[in-house]
Amino acid sequence: MAKLKEGWLPVDRSLVGSAEWEKEKYVMEATMSIVFEAHCYKDGLRGKQQDYAKAMERFHKAADMGNPEAQYNLGVLYGSAINGPVESAKAVYYFNMATSQPLFYISSVPRLGVPQAHNALGSYYDTGFGVKRDLDKAFQHYKLSAEGDEPFGMSNLGVAYVEGRGTPVNIPKAIEMYTKAAEKNHPVAQYNLGSIYAAGYPGIEKNIRLARNWYSKAAANNHWLALVALEKSFLGSSPAESDTAEAMCMLGTAYEKGIDGQNPDVEQALHWFQKAAKQKLPMAQFRLGLLYLNKIPTFVEPKRISKGVKYIRDAAQLNNPQAQLMLSEFYQFGDYGNKRDIAKANSWLSKAKENGVDITRTILDRECESDIEFEKLLRRVQKWELSEGLTDSNASEPVTNQERIRRYSSSKFGKRFNDPERGKEYIEEVNTFIKLVEEIQPSLLHPVAPYQGIGDRYSLDKLAAYANTRVGDIMIAAKQHYLRGDVFLSDGKIRGFVYELFHAFKLCDIVCSVPMQLFEPVSHILQDYILENPHDAEAKFVLAVFSVFLKQPWSTALSLMDECVKLHPQESAFYLYRGNVKAFSRRYQDAISDFDVAVQILGPKNGYFAYYLRGAAKMKFMPPMALLDYHVYLEHAPLEDRKMSEVLFDMALCYRTLDMEKATEFYNRGLEAEAKRFPIFDPVDFSTIAMTESMLKMASFSRHMRKCSISMCEQIADKACSVCKKVWYCSKEHQKAHWKQHKLVCAKK
C-alpha cells in the first residue's frame, strides 16, 4: 500500500481489505470513467462539445452509485444559473448527500467532493440561500471543509473567525486558516491575510511588508481588490490620503456643511477640495470655485474672484453641467470680471442642457438678451437701489449684477399682493426655495452609486431585522443573489456572477454593495464576456448598470439596454431600467413609454414600483397627471416601501394648485411615513421636505395676490392703472381693453 501522506488523518489498518474497503474500491473504479466523461461534457474538454444535459445525466448516474464528487457537482449545477433556473432545494439535497460521507477514504485519500460540498453548504447557511440562515451550521460546515484540506473552506473559516460568525472572534485562528489557504494559492485568502496585516488588530501588529507581500500574491492571481490596493498605494498612508478623488470631494462637502452637527469648517473643506481638484475631478473643481466665490472673504484671499472663476471654468471644460450653467450666467450678466457676451452665454447654456440640467428661461432672462435692453434694466435697477439705499458701498463684498437684478425683480413682485407684508413673506420664501434647489440640484443629475461606507450597511445580519416584511424579504433575497454573485466572480465563473447580479439588481439594487474600485475592472471583464456571448442580455444589463455608476455617457447604457430589450422583449426589468436612464438624461416622455410597457407586463399588484417611476417622470412636466399613478402605487405598495414618503410629498405638490386641503393632508401623511421609515434606509433628503413645505407656503400665499380686473380673467396682476393706482391688470392688452369702462370711474377718482 502506498505510504500515507503526512498530515492526513490516521488510518485504521484493520479496515484494509474489509467489506467496506471493497465497497469503496468498487465505487471508485465503477464511477471514475463516468465522472471523467461528465466533466468533459460540462467543460467542453477532450473533443467533446459542451453539453450540460449530458454532463448532468452522467453525474446523476455516478451520484446514484455513491460518488461524492458527482453529488457535489450536481449540487453546483442545480445551485447556479449555468444550466437553466436555479433549483436551490435540489442543490442542498445533493450537497447533503455528499456531506453524509466521511471526509477521507479508508486509504486516507481525501474523498473528493465531500469537503467541497461542506464549503458549499456552509455558504448556503451563511447567506440563507435555499435554507434557513444558520451561522452555527455554516461555521461547522466550513470547519469540516477546512479539515478536508479544502482551501475555500479554510478561507471562509478565516472570515468566520474575523467576523465572529457562528464562533467568537479569533484573529490568530483566522490568520492560521488564511495562511493555510493562502499557501495553497487561494487568492481570496491571500488578499484577506494582506488586509489583516495592513490594518493591524489587537494583538496583531500592523506589518506593511507582509501585507504588501500577500497583496502581491493575490494580485498575481488576478484578485481585483488586491490589484487596486497595490495600484492605488493604499499601504503606508492614512485612509483619507489613500482615498479616491471622489471620496476627497465628499469629505470636502461634509466639512463644508458640517460633520455630525458640528459647525462648517471652510478651511478643511478648502483643503480636501484642492486635493481632489488636483486630480482633475470636475465636481471638486466646481465646489472649490463656489467656495472661493461665496464663502472665502476677500480679506482672507484677495484673489478669490479670479481663483473661483478659474476653477468654475476648469470644471465646465471638463463637462460639469453645474459649472457650465454658472459660467453661462457669468457671461449673461457680465459678473466676476467677465465681459458680457451673449454668444458665449448661450454656448455654455446649451452644453449644460445637453448634460442634463433642467433650465427654464424666465422673463428676466429674456430681457437680458439685448445689450441695449440690459443696460436699460441696469439703469432701472440702479435707480431703485438709490431709492432703497442699497449700494455696493453698504456691502462687505461686491454684489453681482445677477443678484442686483433678482432683488429688483423681487421688489416688483411684492406689488402683486394686496398686503405688502404678504408680499415680503412671499419673496423671502422664494429666496429660501432657490437656495434649497441649489443645494439639491447636484444629486439630481446622476444616480447615486451603491453604498460605499465603512462595513456593509445592508449586510444579511442587518437585514435580518426586517425579515417577514414584504420589503425586508425582497432585500434579503436580493442580498443573497448579490453574495452568491460575489463568490462566482471570485471563482472566475462569470456566467454565474451575471445571473446573480442581474437578479439582485432586479429585486433591490441598493443592497448591492459593490466596491467603487471594482466597477471599472469588472466592466472590462463583462465586456470580454459579452464579446464571446453576444446574446446574453443579463450580462449587458449588468454592464449598463456599471456604466451608469461609472458616470459614462448616458448613450452607453441606453445602447446596451436597447440590445437587452431586443433580445428579451418580455423582461420588465429591461424597460424599467432603460426608462430610469432616460429619466436621468431628461428624456421624460421616452421614459414614460418604457414604464408603460413595464406596467402592462407586471400589472398593478406586482408593478407598483413601475407606477411610482412613471409618476415620478410625469412630475417633471405634467405634475397633475402623476396623481393617477401615485394613487395606484399607494394602493398596492407595502407601507414600509422606501419610496412611500417621497410619493406622498410629490402628491402634496400635485394638489397644491388643485386643492390646498388635500395638499396639506398628503404633506402630513408624508411626514408620518418618513417617521416610520425603516432605519436601514437613508431618510428623505431634508432639502426635499423643505422644498415641498416651501412650495406649499408659496401656493398658500398666492391666494392673497391681486387678480386681473378683467371679468373671467384669473391671472395674477402686477400692472396698476397709472392714474388712480387702484385697479390692477395682468397685461397691457387687458388694461387697454378695460380702459373704456374704467376711465369713467378713474376720472371721478
UniProtKB/TrEMBL annotation:
Domain MYND-type positions:
708-746
Q: Which SMART domains match?
A: SEL1
The UniProt entry, under SUPFAM superfamilies, shows: HCP-like (SSF81901), HIT/MYND zinc finger-like (SSF144232)
> What keyword terms does UniProt attach to this protein?
Metal-binding, Zinc, Zinc-finger
Residues crossing the lipid bilayer are none
Name the PROSITE patterns for this protein.
ZF_MYND_2
By its UniProt entry, which Pfam families does this protein fall under?
Sel1 (PF08238), zf-MYND (PF01753)
| Gene Ontology molecular function terms on file | zinc ion binding
Q: Which family does it belong to?
A: Belongs to the sel-1 family.
The protein's name in its UniProt record: MYND-type domain-containing protein
Q: Which organism is it from?
A: Jimgerdemannia flammicorona
- What does the organism's lineage look like at the top? Eukaryota, Fungi, Fungi incertae sedis, Mucoromycota, Mucoromycotina
